[in-house]
Amino acid sequence: MPKKLTIDGKEITARDDATIIQAAHESGIAIPHYCYHPKLSIAGNCRMCLVELEGRPKLEIACNTPVADNMVVLTDSPKVVEGRRGVLEFLLINHPLDCPICDQAGECGLQDYYMQYGLYHSRFQEEKVHGRKVVDFGPDVVFDSERCILCTRCVRFCKEISKTNELGLFERGDTAQIATFPGKQLDNPYAGNTVDVCPVGALTSKDFRFKIRVWFLTETRSVCPGCARGCNINIHHHNGHVYRLKPRQNDAVNETWICDEGRFGYKTINDNRVLYPHIQQDGRLQQASWPAALEHAIEALQAHAGTAVGIVVAPQGTNEDSYLLARLASEVLRASHVVLYPGVPGYEDDFLIRADKNPNTRGAQDMGLPAPATAAQLAAMAQAIDQGTIKVVYAIGVNLAEAFGAETVARWSTQLDYLIVQTSNTVPGCEQAHVLLPSATYAERDGTFTNFQGYLQRLNAAFAPRGEAWPAWQIYTRLAQGLGQDWTYASAEGVLHDIAAAVPTYAGLSYAKIGDLGYSVTQES
Amino acid sequence: MQPLTFWQKLYIPEILRGMVVTTRHFVTNVLGRRHTVTQQYPEEPTYVSERYRGRHRLMRKEDGSPRCTSCMLCATSCPALCIHIQAGEHPDPTVEKFPISFTIDELRCVFCGLCVEACPCDAIRMDTGVFALAAYKRENFLYPRNLLLGDDEPVNIAEGKAPAH
After folding, report:
1. Cβ of A101 and B93 within 8 Å?
2. Which of A29, A290, A486, B126 is surrounded by the fewest CB atoms within 10 Å?
3. What's the pTM?
4. CB contact under 8 A, A133 and B93
């Protein structure tokens, strides 16, 4: 039975088992809080979410009071504001107020609510209790006990979500502190989330510490390309440089979490990039212009189209890329071998991390690319190259040395008429290329990924591609144009428009319809 | 325009009157009877007000290390985006962070003084009185930490010959 109650004069209907804070948040009323987290158990220790309930003499905490019929809740009455101010004053008693050198400044719960409810002059005359500073909790997490308000979100995360129990709350009173259990390190695959859930600057990320102040950062909604899960993320970037990834809530995919491997996956956007087209000249790759590089590639493809073109592609590309590549391979090049190389399967668990380390294996197949290649299929392709039936290889985002073996790839530069390598990062084997085409990373382009569950999710371009990199769909379009097709795609959205017309399970989709939280393409089938 | 009087129309007397004024100034200045307002810059240093916003300098703590905590408030307030700070982990856990590099691009700087206002530690000041920055290379206007702290002298006019025109 849904419950009807009134919050701040607004009549709302709440789930039977909801608490006041959940009911309020679901209907768009913000209640300040520190220890409450929608995906963690209720602790009720920060007392920040105090609200006034009509007919009750004292303020109650909204996070642990279940809703009831005809309840009248006031979240902003003078009594509540006074109460919150008192709570904040207690929380800040031993807080060092080192905001200028604290990494959390700018996104700190204490700062935000102080500006909203505090604004008092400190009455505290005594010496503040000094705690432990810069405590090494694990590979990425640093702890500062002076800044900690003991909300225990991180402790609950390790207990309930990662289920690894590294953290505990020790001692009492003003010596109470969060710490790792003796001999333990906060090194679980999801440890970085403790930094995200920390509402203050107590837990900071070693990787992000001091790199940049958070107010310089711009957020762009995207999807993690680290595995087939496709966790929703925000890319935090400044001046074309990515500083960190933060998980974005999507209850159907990753709730509010992300694994550490995905979290630190942004480094490929900044480092080891191929930024300009290169052509093999005088025994080494030399920087060239796009028209020159495309001309070389088109010439080679044209000479061998129909018989002797092999394409090997990693399922790292978006649906838009995969769709155009599938069409390029079948309609234009009529390639004899098209191989989807999924890479080496990695670590997997029963929470978020998937063994398939590609973001779009499912989407690539939906778009008409073949199923992930077996070792036998790869060997068959290598053999076809040895026998001379494949004369041109177009490798897209593939670690060739890993897929075929470094020795085999080393032979290709003489065996093949032409090796076209398209990649956004330098990978082993790309130095063998006759022409090297730079493609944009996922942060620099629009597009969609379909995760293993069939959730179609959007990437948004955070900034223009660095150097002269192009998004892959643009490269395919220009190649097709050079090979005599009348493709006129001007944006990734334009390609999706065609996908929506051509692929039944994606029928009628547009970027607007996919939205920020994705769209399940399995619903229709 | 006012019409000229008969006396003025005669021309020569007025010219002579003007020459008398000029000659009087010439004679008094040459004989040094009156203080001239002309400053012999750059031979003689000019007067710079205490409040004058000149080239920046970084202050030190008592132990000699930079006062700067690399909080980036100066870089945040800078309207010309000319302050570039790279923060690093300080060996002393109570200090948190310090500037590994602190560079001011004096060519971009508009000398507004907002960085000085913003600094919570009085780590940056513009009281050097230096206003005549000159160098032959643009890179020499990038003032790194050691120059701002006064450890080294800036490379400027003293360096090399004038480029051939």
Report:
1. no
2. A486
3. 0.90
4. yes
